[in-house]
């Protein structure tokens, strides 16, 4: 079985001579060693300042000063040679006052970083719930003979910006594209999550 490159770093390395000696001395030493390692792990401190972090089905005490930079990916089918998904980026430190300025900044940044992309459409739109949003559609060639279309929707609510991105081929833009765009436009803020 071939191990993916990322996981090779976790692959068991050949045992050193001292490790071999530890293994031959029995399970009592292993148990004692495990207890020592557990004692070396510092217990949670009451002086640690934390805030509650709620993820998708879990919580943890996030250290104060740490930032949540989660990128959400909702994965769909592989069709016409690409994995379809919707990627949601959240930026909690927004300096823009309106969604159009935020969107124009995002569009300019993408055009500078993604050489050869063409902006096909940009403009105001509305989410299903009536919230103002902005959208842009790009096309570009990651390979010489393979064209990708990217649809982005930008949302700005209470100084928090959201960017939703979906990519398509020419064929899937027509077949599953409308359903994916409707899914993106159904974005809504969950006021119970705070």
How is the topology of this model organized?
Layout: H1 5-8, H2 17-24, H3 27-40, E1 50-54, E2 59-63, E3 71-79, E4 82-91, H4 99-113, E5 118-126, E6 132-143, E7 146-157, E8 160-168, H5 170-175, H6 177-185
Antiparallel strand pairs: 1-2, 3-4, 4-8, 5-6, 6-7, 7-8
How would you summarize what this structure contains?
The protein is an alpha+beta fold and 194 residues long.
Characteristic key phrases:
alpha+beta
Describe the structure.
The longest helix has 15 residues, at 99-113. The chain contains six helices and eight strands, in the order H-H-H-E-E-E-E-H-E-E-E-E-H-H. The chain is α+β, with helices and mostly antiparallel strands and 194 residues long. The protein has a domain at 71-185: Protein Transport Mog1p, Chain A, CATH 3.40.1000.10. Mean pLDDT is 83; it is low at 6-16. It has a six-stranded antiparallel sheet. A hairpin with a 5-residue loop joins strand 5 and strand 6 (132-143).
Major pleated sheet: 6 strands, antiparallel
Overall pLDDT confidence: 83
CATH C-level class of the domain at 71-185: Alpha Beta
Radius of gyration, taken over Cα atoms and rounded to an integer in Å: 24 Å
Task: Tell me the number of strands.
Answer: 8
